[in-house]
Design goal:
By secondary structure, this protein is an alpha+beta fold. The protein has two domains: 79 residues, no CATH class; 38 residues, no CATH class. 30% of the residues lie in helices and 24% in strands. A two-stranded antiparallel sheet has the order 1-4. A two-stranded parallel ribbon has the order 2-3. The longest helix is centred in the middle third of the chain and has 15 residues. It is globular, with a radius of gyration of 16 Å. The two termini are 23 Å apart. This is S-adenosyl-L-methionine-dependent methyltransferase. Belongs to the methyltransferase superfamily. It holds the Pfam family Methyltransf_11. InterPro entries: Diverse_substrate_MTase, Methyltransf_11, SAM-dependent_MTases_sf. Keywords: Methyltransferase, Transferase.
Length: 122
């Protein structure tokens, strides 16, 4: 997946566990998680996010379910304009919007779930 990312000199892509992010404290401007948050160990992830985000940094968590950005209709509209193109399969989109839910982790599921974070190289 990272090999498909647009390469730019001011962006560094890294793959890491959501619960053990390899960044110095207060180093990251934005963390995003798309359709993966339900797999994370939430207390550990939030601790890491708080640790690595710069003051006034942004944590954006989104998925296939209906999302509303609190007290900001304009931002919600922009999110939907962008996100509907990313969902892909129209059946998936319609299912997600109609149910307003995302799948929960299965007890039978094994594997490592990773998150990707973009940073500017120092």
């Amino acid at each position: 997946m990272l090999s498909n990312a647009v390469q730019k000199p001011n962006i560094d892509y890294q793959e890491a566990s959501a619960e053990r992010l390899p960044f110095a404290d207060s180093r990251v401007d934005v963390i995003t998680s798309g359709q993966a948050f339900h797999w994370f160990d939430h207390p550990k992830f939030f601790g890491e996010a708080k640790r690595i985000l710069k003051p006034r940094g942004t944590l954006a968590i989104f998925g296939y379910s209906v999302s509303i950005i609190k007290d900001n209709k304009e931002a919600t509209d922009i999110f939907y304009e962008y996100a509907t193109g990313l969902i892909g399969n129209p059946v998936t989109r319609s299912l997600a919007i109609s149910t307003g839910t995302s799948p929960s982790p299965s007890r039978k599921c094994t594997g490592t779930f990773r998150t990707r974070v973009m940073t500017r190289p120092t």
